[in-house]
Amino acid sequence: MENEAATPARAQLPQGDRSLLLVDDDKPFLQRFGRALEQRGFDVTTADSVAEGVAAIRAKAPAYAVVDMRLSDGNGLDVIEALRQARADSRTIVLTGYGNIATAVTAVKLGAIDYLAKPADVDEVISALMHETGNRAEPPENPMSADRVRWEHIQRVYELCERNVSETARRLSMHRRTLQRILAKRAPR
Fold first, then answer.
1. In which band, very low, low, confident or very high, does the pLDDT at 98 lie, cut at 50, 70 and 90?
2. Is the separation of the CB atoms in 69 and 76 below 8 Å?
């Protein structure tokens, strides 16, 4: 079953250098995603920090890279910049749970070809890596609803405030009781 799913993606990979650097500080995600990319034909090197990512680039600059934006020791943009300097023809995707327009623009200026929000599946990442430059990407088949985007933003701020309801409500300019009601509900679809 897995081989059937891997065959179409493997067939889409161009011949030649299939080296890929995967940089993320979430180790279980890093291992799972790395294995999935290997099963689809990439030669994967993993790194869980900016320092490891830059060291891997210095050892052998990969043809492809998937880089998380926020890493334990810094910003994934540093890895993207190091890769661009080492290998101008590399294709880099930024994968992050903390997306915003300013960092997306900066990532693209530094050489990233796409910016995907977590959770993204392996097929989405491979599609973005192989997407022809200059063509517009296809819109997502099932985009998140506005309610879901709002809920995820509230959850992200809540976590950044170390689950402090009062501080989260202050930062969101929201009444504390309103925030408590939102947090008590299930995530919208």
1. low
2. yes
Quickly list H helices, the chain.
2-12, 27-39, 50-59, 76-86, 101-109, 122-130, 146-160, 165-171, 176-184
Phi, psi at 7, each rounded to 5°: -60, -50
pTM of the entire structure? 0.63
- Classify strands 74-75 and 70-71 as parallel, antiparallel or unpaired: antiparallel
Please give the average per-residue pLDDT across 109-136, as a whole number. Answer: 76
- Residues paired with 93 in a beta bridge: 66, 114
d(CA 74, CA 49): 8
Closest by CA position to 53, among listed 83, 28, 18, 8: 83
Question: Which position has the token pair 């088949």?
Answer: 141
Q: Are strands 70-71 and 64-68 parallel, antiparallel or unpaired?
A: unpaired
Per the omega criterion (within 30 degrees of 0), is the bond before 143 cis?
no
Average pLDDT of the segment spanning 48-69: 91
Percent of the chain clearing pLDDT 90 (strictly above): 25
